[in-house]
Amino acid sequence: METVTDKPTAAATSSAEDRVLVERAQDGDTRAFDDLVRKYTPKLYGMVYNMTANREDTADLLQEIFAKAYRSVKRFQGKSSFYTWIYSISVNMTLNFLKKRGRYAKVSLDDVDSGIQNDPEFIKVTTAQRDTVREVNINELQKSLNAAMMKLSEDHRTVVTLYDIQGHQHNEISKILGVSEGTVRSRLFYAHRILQTYLEDLV
Amino acid sequence: MSEFEDIQRLIRLKKFETPKEDFVEDFLAKFHERQRSEMLRQSSLSLLWERVTTYFDDLVTPKLVLVPAVACVGLLAIWGAMNLGSSPTGNDTATLVSTQTLPSVMPQQKPFIVDSQLIREVENDRALEIEGILLSRHFETDNMTQPEIVDVVSVSGSLSPVSAELQPVARFNP
Lengths: 203, 174
Prior knowledge:
The complex is a heterodimer. Chain A is an all-alpha fold. Chain A has nine helices and no strands. In chain A, 72% of the residues lie in helices and 0% in strands. Chain A folds into two domains: 9-103, RNA polymerase sigma factor, region 2, helix turn helix motif (Rna Polymerase Sigma Factor, Chain: A, Orthogonal Bundle); 113-203, Orthogonal Bundle (Arc Repressor Mutant, subunit A). The relative contact order of chain A is 0.10. Chain B is mainly alpha-helical. Helix content of chain B is 60%, strand content 7%. In chain B, a hairpin with an 8-residue loop joins strand 1 (149-155) and strand 2 (164-169). Classes of the chains: A mainly alpha, B mainly alpha. Chain A binds chain B through residues 34, 37-38, 41-42, 45-46, 49-50, 59, 62-63, 66-67, 70, 74-75, 113, 115-116, 119, 121-122, 125-126, 129, 132-133, 141-142, 145, 149, 160, 164-167, 192-193, 195-196, 199, 202-203, and chain B through 1, 4, 6-20, 23-24, 27-28, 30-31, 34-35, 38, 54, 57-58.
């Protein structure tokens, strides 16, 4: 696990690596783009999944996101980092998808991740937080968390996903969403208040 | 933010909801498949369109194109509104032509006149012919009381000077 002091250095190295990969991809090296896909798929998966709460939708949407990025990579001028750029594409496409899905279908909130129950790190954390997460079935906990997240508006869910779950900083989120840092903080505050209402039994 | 620490700790548990280990490689394989099938599905026309749009996208950024485009549309709208405002409210073309709008825009033109000796003579002939008919009618009415009537004998349409002669004729017998 990286420490706070390591974070800027790691981010700078990661950004430099991305720049090299992007330049190679812009020159037509498809393997460089594959490396970018490998690097960002797990991160973007977490973001999209926590927004949609559906695995199939997440996989389909990720395909669309990388297809769009592939078509546009030649136009990427490096004004922002690749990481900010790909996250902006992902957030916009996910929000558009949610608007469409909201009109035509309802997502099942029972769509929980069964694999997580065996995740050693998850077990360690939930065991350590026994005072916070009371004696509650992990499956039930997941359902409750998903349900609470889906109660949030799409804008609020986005900031909670990016800040609380993915660990981005306020300034990074403001760049990704194209809003001010104040707006990010305000959305977070209201989102936390709403979540507290729905999850008060668990804390 | 401390008042929400418990909630944040709880929500952070969702970061463990990650895809399975083989997901990324499967995803990449599907991505390649998708790219290939898209290439096959695309018609030559759509490929050409994509290349053209990509070329223009690289040439100028959309924001730079948008500004003059909006300015052009705005100017056209203002020009159209001004023209509509100055024109009469009538619908038909005749109304438009009869008003002062067109002469004020277009230069004043003289009426189309052909000055020709031949035309003048024909017009003169017609005037004389009408005069002759009127005279013959006049004498016809007089003929009721008088034994002789007068009729138009000759009306010439030649190039020579025209003259009408009134000569006594025999009584009209139908």
